[in-house]
Amino acid sequence: MKRRKLIKTALSLPLIPYGLSTAIAAGAGGKPVTGDTIFYDERFPEARRLAEQWAPADFIMPVRSDMTGVWNDGLKHACRQSPLTLHGVTTESFHFCLEIMLRSRAAVETRITRIDRDLHRWTIRSYNKPLTG
Amino acid sequence: MTAPLPSGVSPESMSRALEKFGNIVGRQWVFTEKDISPYEDPYTISNDESEYKPYAAIAPDSVEQIQAIVKVANEYGIPLWPVSRGKNFAYGGAAPVMSGSIVLDLNRMNRILEVNEEFGYALVEPGVSYFDLYDYIQERGMKLWLDVPDPGWGSVVGNALDHGIGYTPYGDHFMMQCGMEVVLANGEVVRTGMGAMPGNNTWQLFKYGFGPYVDGIFSQSNFGIVTKMGIWLMPEPAGYRPYLITFEREDDIEEITEILRPLKVNNIVQNAATVRSLVLDAAVVSTKSQYYDGKGPIPPSVAKKIMADQQIGMWNFCGALYGPPPVTDALWSVIRDAFSKIPGAKFYFPEDRKNKFDILLHRAETMKGIPKLTEFNFLNWDGGGGHVGFSPVSPITGKDAIKQYRMVSNRVREYGFDYLGLLAIGWRELHHVVVIVYNKDDPEERQRLDELFNILVDEAAAEGYGEYRTHIRYMDRIANTYNWNDNALMKMNQTIKDALDPNGIIAPGKSGIWPKKLRGEQS
Q: For residues A65 and A106, is the Cβ–Cβ distance under 8 A?
C-alpha cells in the first residue's frame, strides 16, 4: 500500500561542497543561512553530533522545532530568488512546516530519514517552477 | 494509487473535462497523478487508501475562470472540492470528502484588494494567507492588527468560512467577516450585504444589507465558491499586556471556568483567551521523550516535573490586556483578584518568565496577531507527527467544563494518548478543542484513533455537546448528531443544496450535505 509519508526515502545523504554558497538568509543570532547550512535541534546532543558529522561546525545552525523565525529572517525571499538545498537534523515540525512553506513558492523535493523517536535527518530541495497546493 | 473516478463519471468524461479545465486555467495549473500528493490529507486517519483521494486539482486565478470551470463541471457532472489554501491540516487539509473530486485550489487568487486603516478592514481573495496580510500591513506601517489562528499559513477567508478562531478581541473570525462575493454553481456571481447595491461604499462596513442575511449559508457549506471577503481588523491598541495564570490541579478547571464567565461576558477579559492543558503547553517547547520514556500517557510524577521546569500548571490561562495603561491596570486588578481565590494560582507577565523558549512568550505574539507556525511543535510530542482536532462546544460553566474534561480526557488516556486540550473562551460559550497527536505512519494507531474519535462524538452527543468543526472523515457522523425534529436542519440544507446546485458539483459531502444524486449512496 502506497501511503503519503513524510519518510519518503531512506536517504544516503550526498556529500556537498561546503563554503561555496552565498548567504541567503539571516539565521538565529544573525548567522547567515546558506545552501550549505545544516539545521540541528539544539535540545538533542545526537542532532548536533550528526550535524557535525555532516558539515564543518561553521555551517551548522542550532534551532528548535519552530521554523517561523528562520523563514521570516530571509528564507521566504531567498526561495523565490534561486533554487535552494537545505539540510537538517531536527524534529518533524521543523521540516514539515519548511516543506509546506517552500511548496507555496516553489516546487519541492524532500528526502527524510527517521533517526529516533524525536529526530529526522532531511534534505529539502526547491526549484523555481511555481506550484500551489 | 490512482484515485477512483467520482460516482457517475466515465473516464472519457473526466478526460474531456480535464482538457477543458486546462484550456481555462492553463495546462500547468492542472495537477494529476504524482502532482496531486499535496492535495491529500497529510495526517490521514483511514487505512483505506482509496478514501479521500482527489482525482486531480486545478488552480484558477480569477472569478471568470471559476465561472468557466463550474460550467464544465456541470456539463460533465464533475465534483469540485474548493479550498482557499488547503492548510486546514487537523481537519483533512485540501483532501475532499468524496474520492475522485477535483480540488479547486484557490491559492493563486491571492490578491489583497484593499486594506482600509481608517475603518479597520481588509477585502481579500481566498488565497491570501495570514502571513501575506500581516506582511502587507507591516510593510505599509499601518496601525492595524490581525487576528490569527495558530497556523499562520492558513487562508484569511478559509479560516473564517470554517468558523476558525483566533486570540485577540477579534477572535471569532466569522463574526468579523463583512461582505462576500460568491460564485454559485450555475456560474452566477453574487455579492452579499451592501455589496448587492451598485455604487454602494459600505460593503465592508455593514454586514446585513437588506433582506435575508445569507453569508452564513456559505460557511462550512457547499452552496457556492467564495471569491472575495471583507474582514474587520483591529486598530492597534494604545497598550498591550499579555499574561499567564497557572493552576496546579486538574479539578481547578471547574472554578477557573466559573470565574471566567462573568469576566468574559462583562468584557473584563477582552480577548478570545484560552485555558490550556499541561501537555499542550509542554509540547510546544519540549518533547515527551525529554521527560518520559514509557508508553501511554505521562504519569503524575512526570507532570509535576514538567510544571516545575516550564513554570506552567495543570491548566494555564493565557490572556491579554488591550488599551491605555490606566484601562489595562484596572482590568488586571479585577482579573488578578478574581483568580486569586483559587489556591496555588500563579500570575506571570512576560518579564517574569525564566526560560527563553516559553509558552507565554510564544502566545504573547499570537495574542497580538503575529502569524506563526510555532504551535505545530506539538506534532513532535510523541514522535508520531499526526494530529486531529475534536472540538465540542459547551456553555461557559464550571460544571460543563469539568464534565467535558473528564469525559474526553479519560477516553483519550484509555486509548493510550495524552490529553492535549484547550478551552477557547467565546462570547457565551467555550470551544473545548482537543488535539489528539498520533503516529500517522502506524495503521494500528490510526485505527485506534478512529475508534476513539467515533466514541468521543457519540458520547458528547449523548450529553448534548456538539462539535463546531471537524475532520472530513467525521462530517457525516457529526452532521447526524444535529438531528432535532427528524433532521429538520439537514432537510433544509438539502433543499438549499438542491436549489443552488442541482447537479451536485460543489463539494459533495461537505458538512454532511450531499447532493440529491448521491444521498442514497452515502446513506
A: no
Provide the ipTM.
0.93
Q: Kindly report the average pLDDT of chain B as a whole number.
A: 96
pTM across the whole model: 0.94
C-alpha cell, B238: 494604545
- Asked if the Cβ–Cβ distance from A92 to B379 is below 8 Å, we say yes
The Cα B511–Cα B334 span in angstroms is 41
* Residue B240: strand, helix, or coil: strand
Active site residue B213: no
How many angstroms separate the CA atoms of B416 and B295, rounded?
8
Task: Determine the distance in angstroms separating the CA of B374 from the nearest CA of chain A, rounded to an integer.
Answer: 5
Cβ-defined contact of B286 to A43 (cutoff 8 Å)? yes
- Helical H runs in B145-234? 156-161
Interval A110-132: pLDDT, tens: 999 999 999 999 999 988 765 66
Q: Which residues pair with B30 in a beta bridge?
A: B58
Q: Is the pLDDT of residue A1 over 80?
A: no
The contacts of residue B402 (CB under 8 Å, 6+ apart) are B251, B253, B254, B257
Cell representation of residue B500: 443552488
The span from the CA of A86 to the CA of A106, in Å, is 14
Tell which of B377, B381, B439 to mutate to test the A interface (max A CBs under 10 Å).
B377
Residue B170 a catalytic site member: no
Kindly identify which residue of chain A lies nearest to residue B132, measuring between CA atoms. A76
Residues B404-449: tens digit of each pLDDT? 999 999 999 999 999 999 999 999 999 999 999 999 999 999 999 9
